Fold this sequence. Notes:
- This protein is α/β, with parallel strands linked by helices and 364 residues long.
- Helix content is 34%, strand content 20%.
- It is built from eleven helices and eleven strands.
- Helix 1 links the parallel strand 1 (4-9) and strand 2 (49-56).
- The longest helix has 22 residues, at 306-327.
Amino acid sequence: MKKTRIAIIGVGNCASSLIQGIHYYQDKNPEEAIGLMHWEIGGYTPGDIEVVAAYDIDKRKVGVDVRDAIFCEPNCTTVFCPEIPKSGVTVLMGRILDGFSDHMKDYDPKRTFVVTDEPEPTEEEVVNVLKGSGVEILLNYLPVGSEEATRFYADCALEAEVAFINNIPVFIASDPVWAKRFEDKNIPLIGDDIKAQLGATITHRILTDLFNKRGVKLERTYQLNTGGNTDFLNMLNRSRLASKKESKTEAVQSVAAERLDDENIHIGPSDYVPWQNDNKICFIRMEGRLFGEVPMNLELRLSVEDSPNSAGIAVDAIRCAKLALSRGQGGVLSAPSAYFCKHPPRQFTDDKAFQMIEDFIRGD
């Protein structure tokens, strides 16, 4: 079948895991495909995805073949597929805007971006690249807090008429104005803020829903996360975290039997621990009352490699966007957004969202 041609904004750890995964599963058969939610979607397998354009702002990546760029510093995720052929696609200089936090300049270059001084592209230049490369789907992997930069690339997607998958907590799909713009042009949109395959927020949601279904009154909860990748370093700038905290908190609040008061729920990044690299450690505590109003509490520690956890979702989101393109379906894709993202336009329980995505894939 025809390849699904994608462009990536931000060739960081998440892009590295996604591209490694595309090649890792290329020669697999369904019985060997451990770690996938769906082996095929609409006839498309992970190996049918092809990166045809990429943008970054780090001088160690700009001008470099995508194959080499995904293994350049400051990327620090697990290398599970080292044997990747040259792609023939050179990483292009991206638009900076607010996509880089100044506090990161003070850290060891091995841990942060080294911003190149190459000229930034105009919107017209980005649109021309998207059109000229035959891009069908544009993936946003910018750092948390990149509000202006995300809107810039969303505009480019609209102008180039390519589908847009917003993997970060800047509200595009869940903003009625932006959603309407994609609907008016019949361009598929998935967002906002990608869930992990099995990460902190999805686990917290499932446990919260379990409390609800088992009649346990949830009274207070927290979720604290630590990590050592550039995402966690970027989030030390707390001014960039407003939408991230809203996205993660709402993902849990939306499945609670009763919304918790603000002082009784805390969800968000906790700290940056350099030696953790791409390993993310999550601590969840939940306190409630069960039969006879007897108190109980639950504590959980979850350790995952952050970026492959994201790629396990992205590989399905891409194929769902491709499916929508083949069907002529545009605007916000409700089922993929609800199942794959923390902050979709409308929240559903994970059971309901799972049924919705299966129906979407079947075409029901």
